[in-house]
Amino acid sequence: MKIGIYNLHMQAKGGGEKRTLVLAEHLSRSHSVWVFVAEPVDVASLESFFDVDLSRVSFVALDGKGRDARRRPALGARWEALSRSLAHFTRIKSFEVDVFINNSHCSDLPCPGARGIYMCMFPFTNGLPNRLRRIYHSLMDRVEERVMGHGGFNYLDSYAVITANSRFTGEWIEQLWGRCPELIYSVGDHMGPPVEKQKIILNVGRFVAHGADGLHKRQHVLLEVFKRLPAIHKQGWQLHFMGSVAQNARVQSLVERLTKDGEGCPVVFHFDADFDSLRELYRRAALYWHATGYGLPVREYPGLQEHFGMTTVEAMSAGAVPVVIDAGGQREIVTHGVDGFVWDDLTALADQTTRLITDSCLRNRFSQRAVLSSARFGRTAYNQRMDEIINRITM
Q: Which residues neighbour 215 within 8 Å (Cβ) at sequence distance 6 or greater?
């Protein structure tokens, strides 16, 4: 078959991009696969970063080498986004794909293929003015009449299946969109086997901004907790941060502040490291910290939680014991007191960490169980689940 996968955020090199490329590699062994991206990508860099073989995959840059920013004041950012979506729909439609997989976060692109799968990382509302929405609907109606529903346009109606990357996301899809999604956990790589564990606490996550002065993945919060534990510093324990850095001035400033705040403490930063470096650090780390969503009540800010927790899965696969926030998709990954700990406040994070550091038998037991638990979320399980859905909707 001819299969298209849509992702406009490839430069972020995050979990959604990993899902796209792992699936593209897998499907390209049996089908013709195009990955539709915003702008040209460095394929070799993506292969190295995500450990994938993209030699059989074709990339299509829909926006060329950057769009003309001078158009924005005249059209308005919202209308420009709608115009862009229409252009993407028309371009992808020309490829006549049998299956179209939309794995682009916050996308409202109708399905331009014969059958479609919408992979939702978290449901969103766009709040566009009714006037602009009506114009957009009219344009889309002219381009492809079948994507119009009897009760008015809804791009979700054009997809045969909507998937959720966790039960947490699925519950919010039902609440916000009134849809019943199918569960497909995001892919977590097997990073083992573990090597001799070192006194390393690891956190992996993109460095992106949230709010006026914080990082979305809450790396600044974890650093402050670690600085309050001088006793473990003296024992030789280190905190390592690893992740890609968003290329904008605001994030660069936050990262500079973070590295400065870590001066004088046993803290190590690994920015934009490749896959091999990431795996090596997972294998050597004894503990894994994660705090996305801290300080943001789930009911008020569901979209700012960790919707799944791919890096937690990967850390567990290498035997790093997770000590993670009790929110979002983390609850579906870590079983408290069995293969790791979950916490609600920073005091608990510090106490649980200290307990694992002082009790090596407990740490080793949790480590072994973590490896076994992580197998539920590997590439094989993810690809098999996607194969089942594709086969079902194309029969």
A: 207, 208, 209, 251, 254, 258
